[in-house]
Amino acid sequence: MGILARIFSHIGSGASSDKYYKSMNQALAILNEDFTMLHYPYHIKDGESFFEAQKNLTDYCMSLLPSVKGKTILEVGCGNGIQAQYINKKYKPRSLIAVDINRANIDIAREEAYKKGLENIVFHIDDAQNLSNIADNSIDYVINIESAFHYPDKPSFFREIARVLKPGGLYLIADILTDPRRRIAPGRYWKRRMHLNHWSRNKYEQEIPRADLMILSYNDITTSIIKSFLNYRRWLASMRKKHIIDDIMLKLYYTIHVRLNIYLLRTRRQYVVITGARAR
Protein backbone atom coordinates (compact mmCIF):
# COMPACT_ATOMS: atom_id res chain seq x y z
CA MET A 1 0.00 0.00 0.00
CA GLY A 2 1.37 3.44 -0.96
CA ILE A 3 1.95 6.30 1.43
CA LEU A 4 -1.18 8.25 0.48
CA ALA A 5 -3.35 5.14 0.63
CA ARG A 6 -2.10 4.36 4.13
CA ILE A 7 -2.75 7.94 5.24
CA PHE A 8 -6.35 7.88 4.00
CA SER A 9 -6.81 4.40 5.48
CA HIS A 10 -5.86 5.69 8.93
CA ILE A 11 -8.00 8.82 8.58
CA GLY A 12 -11.03 6.78 7.51
CA SER A 13 -10.70 4.17 10.23
CA GLY A 14 -13.42 5.78 12.31
CA ALA A 15 -16.00 5.41 9.55
CA SER A 16 -16.90 1.79 10.39
CA SER A 17 -15.78 -1.09 12.59
CA ASP A 18 -14.41 -3.01 9.57
CA LYS A 19 -12.20 -0.07 8.56
CA TYR A 20 -11.23 0.45 12.18
CA TYR A 21 -9.88 -3.08 12.63
CA LYS A 22 -8.17 -3.08 9.25
CA SER A 23 -6.39 0.15 10.14
CA MET A 24 -5.64 -1.02 13.68
CA ASN A 25 -4.02 -4.22 12.39
CA GLN A 26 -1.87 -2.16 10.02
CA ALA A 27 -0.89 0.36 12.70
CA LEU A 28 0.02 -2.20 15.35
CA ALA A 29 1.98 -4.31 12.86
CA ILE A 30 4.06 -1.25 11.95
CA LEU A 31 4.47 -0.11 15.54
CA ASN A 32 5.54 -3.54 16.81
CA GLU A 33 7.03 -4.90 13.55
CA ASP A 34 4.54 -7.77 13.65
CA PHE A 35 0.87 -8.37 14.37
CA THR A 36 -0.14 -7.98 18.00
CA MET A 37 -3.34 -8.67 19.88
CA LEU A 38 -6.15 -6.17 19.30
CA HIS A 39 -7.24 -5.59 22.89
CA TYR A 40 -6.27 -3.01 25.51
CA PRO A 41 -3.06 -3.16 27.58
CA TYR A 42 -2.95 -3.90 31.33
CA HIS A 43 -0.29 -2.42 33.62
CA ILE A 44 1.81 -4.60 35.92
CA LYS A 45 5.21 -2.88 35.98
CA ASP A 46 6.91 0.11 34.43
CA GLY A 47 8.93 -0.30 31.24
CA GLU A 48 6.68 -2.83 29.54
CA SER A 49 6.20 -2.77 25.79
CA PHE A 50 2.70 -2.47 24.37
CA PHE A 51 2.62 -6.15 23.40
CA GLU A 52 3.83 -7.17 26.87
CA ALA A 53 1.03 -5.09 28.40
CA GLN A 54 -1.48 -6.80 26.11
CA LYS A 55 -0.17 -10.19 27.26
CA ASN A 56 -0.68 -8.98 30.83
CA LEU A 57 -4.39 -8.53 30.13
CA THR A 58 -4.68 -12.02 28.68
CA ASP A 59 -2.75 -13.48 31.64
CA TYR A 60 -4.97 -11.62 34.09
CA CYS A 61 -8.08 -13.04 32.44
CA MET A 62 -6.68 -16.56 32.34
CA SER A 63 -5.75 -16.28 36.04
CA LEU A 64 -9.45 -16.00 36.86
CA LEU A 65 -10.11 -19.48 35.42
CA PRO A 66 -8.99 -22.93 36.55
CA SER A 67 -6.27 -24.56 34.47
CA VAL A 68 -7.28 -24.96 30.84
CA LYS A 69 -4.63 -27.61 30.19
CA GLY A 70 -6.23 -30.51 28.32
CA LYS A 71 -9.52 -28.65 27.89
CA THR A 72 -11.36 -27.33 24.83
CA ILE A 73 -11.47 -23.54 24.60
CA LEU A 74 -13.70 -21.42 22.39
CA GLU A 75 -12.51 -17.85 21.88
CA VAL A 76 -15.36 -15.71 20.58
CA GLY A 77 -14.27 -12.50 18.88
CA CYS A 78 -10.70 -13.68 18.34
CA GLY A 79 -9.67 -10.78 16.09
CA ASN A 80 -6.47 -11.54 14.21
CA GLY A 81 -5.80 -14.72 16.20
CA ILE A 82 -2.64 -13.56 17.98
CA GLN A 83 -4.21 -13.96 21.41
CA ALA A 84 -5.37 -17.49 20.50
CA GLN A 85 -1.78 -18.34 19.58
CA TYR A 86 -0.54 -16.95 22.89
CA ILE A 87 -3.10 -18.87 24.94
CA ASN A 88 -2.38 -22.05 23.01
CA LYS A 89 1.38 -21.80 23.58
CA LYS A 90 1.37 -20.73 27.22
CA TYR A 91 -1.69 -22.48 28.66
CA LYS A 92 -1.74 -25.65 26.52
CA PRO A 93 -5.43 -26.47 26.02
CA ARG A 94 -6.26 -29.72 24.27
CA SER A 95 -7.79 -27.72 21.42
CA LEU A 96 -8.73 -24.14 20.72
CA ILE A 97 -11.52 -22.96 18.42
CA ALA A 98 -11.45 -19.24 17.61
CA VAL A 99 -14.17 -17.33 15.77
CA ASP A 100 -14.61 -13.80 14.51
CA ILE A 101 -17.19 -12.18 12.24
CA ASN A 102 -14.55 -10.13 10.39
CA ARG A 103 -13.17 -12.05 7.40
CA ALA A 104 -10.00 -9.95 7.21
CA ASN A 105 -9.18 -10.84 10.82
CA ILE A 106 -9.70 -14.55 10.17
CA ASP A 107 -7.55 -14.39 7.03
CA ILE A 108 -4.68 -12.99 9.12
CA ALA A 109 -5.28 -15.55 11.87
CA ARG A 110 -5.20 -18.50 9.49
CA GLU A 111 -2.13 -17.27 7.65
CA GLU A 112 -0.19 -16.64 10.87
CA ALA A 113 -1.17 -20.04 12.31
CA TYR A 114 -0.16 -21.77 9.06
CA LYS A 115 3.25 -20.06 9.03
CA LYS A 116 3.86 -21.26 12.60
CA GLY A 117 2.60 -24.79 12.01
CA LEU A 118 -0.17 -24.58 14.62
CA GLU A 119 -2.55 -27.48 14.10
CA ASN A 120 -4.73 -27.49 17.22
CA ILE A 121 -6.21 -24.04 16.61
CA VAL A 122 -9.18 -23.89 14.26
CA PHE A 123 -10.39 -20.50 13.02
CA HIS A 124 -13.93 -19.89 11.76
CA ILE A 125 -15.82 -16.89 10.43
CA ASP A 126 -18.82 -16.91 12.74
CA ASP A 127 -21.30 -14.66 14.53
CA ALA A 128 -21.13 -14.56 18.33
CA GLN A 129 -24.91 -14.26 18.42
CA ASN A 130 -25.34 -17.45 16.35
CA LEU A 131 -22.35 -19.77 16.67
CA SER A 132 -23.24 -21.93 13.69
CA ASN A 133 -19.92 -23.81 13.66
CA ILE A 134 -20.02 -24.88 17.32
CA ALA A 135 -21.90 -27.96 18.54
CA ASP A 136 -24.04 -28.15 21.66
CA ASN A 137 -22.32 -29.15 24.93
CA SER A 138 -18.88 -29.26 23.28
CA ILE A 139 -16.80 -26.55 25.02
CA ASP A 140 -15.12 -26.48 28.44
CA TYR A 141 -14.31 -22.75 28.47
CA VAL A 142 -15.71 -19.83 26.47
CA ILE A 143 -13.46 -16.75 26.39
CA ASN A 144 -14.61 -13.40 25.02
CA ILE A 145 -12.13 -10.57 25.48
CA GLU A 146 -13.07 -7.08 24.32
CA SER A 147 -15.62 -7.93 21.67
CA ALA A 148 -19.06 -8.04 23.31
CA PHE A 149 -19.54 -4.26 23.17
CA HIS A 150 -20.01 -4.70 19.40
CA TYR A 151 -22.93 -7.15 19.74
CA PRO A 152 -26.41 -5.65 19.26
CA ASP A 153 -28.09 -8.81 20.62
CA LYS A 154 -26.11 -9.79 23.71
CA PRO A 155 -28.94 -11.97 25.12
CA SER A 156 -28.53 -14.23 22.07
CA PHE A 157 -24.78 -14.32 22.70
CA PHE A 158 -25.39 -15.40 26.31
CA ARG A 159 -27.77 -18.14 25.15
CA GLU A 160 -25.14 -19.34 22.69
CA ILE A 161 -22.58 -19.53 25.50
CA ALA A 162 -24.98 -21.67 27.54
CA ARG A 163 -25.71 -23.88 24.53
CA VAL A 164 -22.12 -24.68 23.58
CA LEU A 165 -20.74 -25.10 27.12
CA LYS A 166 -20.56 -28.57 28.61
CA PRO A 167 -22.35 -29.05 31.96
CA GLY A 168 -20.14 -27.29 34.50
CA GLY A 169 -18.38 -25.33 31.75
CA LEU A 170 -17.08 -21.84 32.45
CA TYR A 171 -17.10 -18.53 30.60
CA LEU A 172 -15.13 -15.29 30.81
CA ILE A 173 -16.22 -11.99 29.27
CA ALA A 174 -13.98 -8.91 29.32
CA ASP A 175 -16.05 -5.96 28.20
CA ILE A 176 -16.14 -2.18 28.19
CA LEU A 177 -19.28 -1.10 30.02
CA THR A 178 -21.09 2.19 30.40
CA ASP A 179 -20.98 3.87 33.78
CA PRO A 180 -24.52 5.24 34.26
CA ARG A 181 -23.32 7.55 37.04
CA ARG A 182 -21.21 9.51 34.53
CA ARG A 183 -23.17 9.06 31.36
CA ILE A 184 -22.72 11.59 28.55
CA ALA A 185 -24.49 10.73 25.32
CA PRO A 186 -22.01 10.32 22.44
CA GLY A 187 -22.89 10.70 18.77
CA ARG A 188 -25.48 8.08 17.87
CA TYR A 189 -24.49 8.00 14.20
CA TRP A 190 -20.86 7.18 15.05
CA LYS A 191 -21.93 4.47 17.52
CA ARG A 192 -24.06 2.83 14.83
CA ARG A 193 -21.23 2.95 12.27
CA MET A 194 -18.81 1.43 14.76
CA HIS A 195 -21.35 -1.14 16.00
CA LEU A 196 -20.98 0.07 19.59
CA ASN A 197 -23.53 -1.45 21.95
CA HIS A 198 -22.22 -0.80 25.45
CA TRP A 199 -24.18 -2.15 28.40
CA SER A 200 -24.14 -1.26 32.09
CA ARG A 201 -23.32 -3.65 34.91
CA ASN A 202 -26.99 -3.76 35.91
CA LYS A 203 -27.98 -4.84 32.42
CA TYR A 204 -25.43 -7.67 32.49
CA GLU A 205 -26.63 -8.81 35.91
CA GLN A 206 -30.24 -8.84 34.70
CA GLU A 207 -29.71 -10.67 31.42
CA ILE A 208 -27.00 -13.27 32.08
CA PRO A 209 -29.14 -15.38 34.49
CA ARG A 210 -31.95 -15.42 31.93
CA ALA A 211 -29.66 -17.44 29.65
CA ASP A 212 -29.15 -20.15 32.31
CA LEU A 213 -25.72 -18.76 33.20
CA MET A 214 -24.37 -17.84 36.62
CA ILE A 215 -22.05 -14.92 37.42
CA LEU A 216 -19.18 -16.00 39.66
CA SER A 217 -17.03 -12.85 39.74
CA TYR A 218 -17.09 -9.25 38.55
CA ASN A 219 -13.74 -7.46 38.33
CA ASP A 220 -13.30 -3.75 37.51
CA ILE A 221 -9.76 -3.21 36.14
CA THR A 222 -10.28 0.24 34.62
CA THR A 223 -7.48 1.85 36.65
CA SER A 224 -4.86 -0.64 35.46
CA ILE A 225 -5.95 -0.20 31.83
CA ILE A 226 -5.64 3.59 32.02
CA LYS A 227 -2.27 3.36 33.77
CA SER A 228 -0.92 1.18 30.98
CA PHE A 229 -2.28 3.43 28.21
CA LEU A 230 -0.41 6.36 29.76
CA ASN A 231 2.84 4.74 28.55
CA TYR A 232 1.91 5.40 24.92
CA ARG A 233 4.53 8.14 24.37
CA ARG A 234 7.32 5.74 25.28
CA TRP A 235 5.84 3.09 22.98
CA LEU A 236 5.78 5.55 20.10
CA ALA A 237 9.36 6.68 20.83
CA SER A 238 10.56 3.09 20.50
CA MET A 239 8.94 2.64 17.07
CA ARG A 240 11.42 1.94 14.30
CA LYS A 241 11.56 4.90 11.92
CA LYS A 242 10.68 4.05 8.31
CA HIS A 243 9.30 7.04 6.42
CA ILE A 244 8.73 10.51 7.86
CA ILE A 245 5.17 10.93 6.50
CA ASP A 246 4.12 7.42 7.50
CA ASP A 247 5.68 7.90 10.94
CA ILE A 248 3.87 11.18 11.52
CA MET A 249 0.50 9.85 10.38
CA LEU A 250 0.84 6.65 12.39
CA LYS A 251 1.81 8.53 15.54
CA LEU A 252 -1.06 10.97 15.06
CA TYR A 253 -3.54 8.13 14.52
CA TYR A 254 -2.24 6.18 17.50
CA THR A 255 -2.15 9.22 19.81
CA ILE A 256 -5.74 10.20 18.99
CA HIS A 257 -6.89 6.62 19.49
CA VAL A 258 -5.16 6.22 22.87
CA ARG A 259 -6.16 9.64 24.22
CA LEU A 260 -9.77 8.98 23.25
CA ASN A 261 -9.72 5.64 25.07
CA ILE A 262 -8.21 7.22 28.18
CA TYR A 263 -10.83 9.99 28.13
CA LEU A 264 -13.72 7.53 27.76
CA LEU A 265 -12.44 5.27 30.52
CA ARG A 266 -12.10 8.25 32.85
CA THR A 267 -15.47 9.81 32.08
CA ARG A 268 -18.06 7.25 30.99
CA ARG A 269 -16.68 3.72 30.62
CA GLN A 270 -15.60 0.84 32.86
CA TYR A 271 -13.39 -2.08 31.85
CA VAL A 272 -14.69 -5.21 33.59
CA VAL A 273 -13.98 -8.93 33.49
CA ILE A 274 -16.91 -11.21 34.31
CA THR A 275 -16.54 -14.93 34.98
CA GLY A 276 -19.32 -17.45 35.34
CA ALA A 277 -20.63 -20.91 34.67
CA ARG A 278 -23.40 -22.74 32.93
CA ALA A 279 -26.21 -22.98 35.46
CA ARG A 280 -27.24 -26.55 34.62
Care to describe what's here?
Strands 3-2-1-4-5-7-6 form a 7-stranded mixed β-sheet. 44% of the residues lie in helices and 20% in strands. Helix 1 packs parallel to helix 11 (244-267). It has helices at residues 3-11, 17-32, 50-63, 82-91, 103-115, 154-164, 188-193, 201-207, 222-229, 232-237, 244-267, and strands at residues 72-76, 95-100, 121-125, 139-145, 165-178, 213-220, 269-278. It starts with a helix and ends with a strand. Strand 4 (139-145), helix 6 and strand 5 form a beta-alpha-beta unit. The protein is globular and about 55 Å long. The protein contains 11 helices and 7 strands. The model is unreliable at 1-17 and 189-194 (pLDDT under 50). It is an alpha/beta fold.
What is the average per-residue confidence, as pLDDT, rounded to a whole number? 86
| Helical percentage | 40-55%
Strand order of the largest sheet: 3-2-1-4-5-7-6
> Span from first to last CA?
51 Å
Class by helix and strand content?
alpha/beta
What's the number of extended β-strand segments?
7
Radius of gyration: 18 Å
Q: Which residues form runs of ≥5 with pLDDT under 50?
A: 1-17, 189-194
Count of DSSP-assigned helices: 11
The string of secondary-structure elements, in order, is HHHEHEHEEHEHHEHHHE
